[in-house]
Amino acid sequence: MTGHRRRPRLPRGLHPMAWWVWALGLAVAASRTTNPILLALLIATLALVVNARRSDAPWARGFRSYLLLGLVVVAIRAAFRCLFGGDIDVTGQHLLVRLPQVPLPSWAAGVQVGGPITLEATLGALYGGLGLATLLCCIGAANTLANPKRALAVLPGALYELGVAAVVALSVAPQLIESLGRVRRARQLRGDRARRPRAWRGMIVPVLEDALERSLRLAAAMDSRGYGRSAGASRRSRRVTGALLVTGLFGCCIGVYGLLDGSQSTSLGIPALVAGALLCGGGLAAGSRRVRRTRYRPDPWALPEWVVAASGAVPAVVLLTVGPSGLNPSTSPLVWPSLPLLPAAALILAALPAVAAPPPSQPARPLHSPAPPGPARSAARAEKVPA
End-to-end distance of the chain based on CA atoms, in angstroms? Predict the structure, then answer.
C-alpha cells in the first residue's frame, strides 16, 4: 500500500496587498533601528524572499537595481558627512584624516567644509545611510513581488485616480530597467561594442522613448476599457465626501503627531487617530458609490496571504515595543554593535513567505526545445546526410 502523497502546490499570484503589508512592516522595523547587523539581516531576508517568490514579469527584475541604489545612498551619505560635517572637537575620538578646511562667512555659521574626520562620525553616517538603503530595498521588494496593475484593482473606487498615479509612479523604475535591457541586447545584436559612458549617450533616448510608448499604450488600453467611469452624483454628496476625507485626514495627522511627540500624552493621539480613520473610511465608502467598475477574476485572500502579512507585521510590532537597547548602537563612545535575540528572531521569521507563499505562475514553455544554434546545428545536419 503506497503512502499518502502530498499534492503539489499550484502556482498562483499572491494578493498584491499581502506583499505590500509584508514590505511596509519590514520598512517600519528598519526605521526603528540603526544596528548594522539587524539591517544586514533584514536585507538578506528581503533578498531570500524575492529570489524564491519573484516571477518572470518585467517588474520582477529590478531588485538588484534597488540594491545598487542603496549602495549609492550609503556612499553619498558617508561622502557628505566627511565633506560637510567635520568635527570641531575631536578629543577622545579616533581621528582618521584631517581634510583642508574652507573658511566660510559669518552668516554660514554651523556649516563646515572639510576639517578633521573621525571614525565615530563616519560610522554614524554609514549606519544612517544603511537604514535609508534598507527602506529602499523594502519598497523595491514590494515592487518586485506585487503586480502593480493587480494592486490597482483592489483599491477603493474613490481612490482610482490616486491609484492610477501611484501605479504609474511605482512601475516607472521596472519599465525603465526592462527597456534598458532590451536596448542593450539590441545594440549587442547589431555589433555595437561601445563602452561606458559613450554607450549611455546612445541608450538614453531609446530607453525613454520605449518607456513613453509603453505608457501611452497602457493609457489607451485603460481608456478603451472605460476605466474610471463615474456614475452621476449630486453636488451635495460630493461635498459630504470631500468634507469627510479632509476632516479624517486632519484627525489622522493630529493623532500621529500626538503619538510621535513624546512630550504629549497618548490620550489625545489615539482617539484622534481612531476618529480620523473612521471618517476617512466613511468618505471612501461614500465616494466609491459614484465609481462604476467591474472586476474580472478578483484575487483571493486565503491562508497564504494571512501568513505573509503576519510575517511582516510581527517584526514591526517587536521592534516598536522592544527597548532601545541594542537597536541603536552608540558611536560616541564607540561600541561594537550587538545582536538582540528577539528582534533578530522576528526578522528571521519575516523570511517565512519564501516557503509559505505559493509559487508564482510562470509563462508556458514550448514542448520541443529549438535546435542548437551555430556549430552544433551544423553538426546535427551533417549527421542526417547519408554517406
Answer: 55
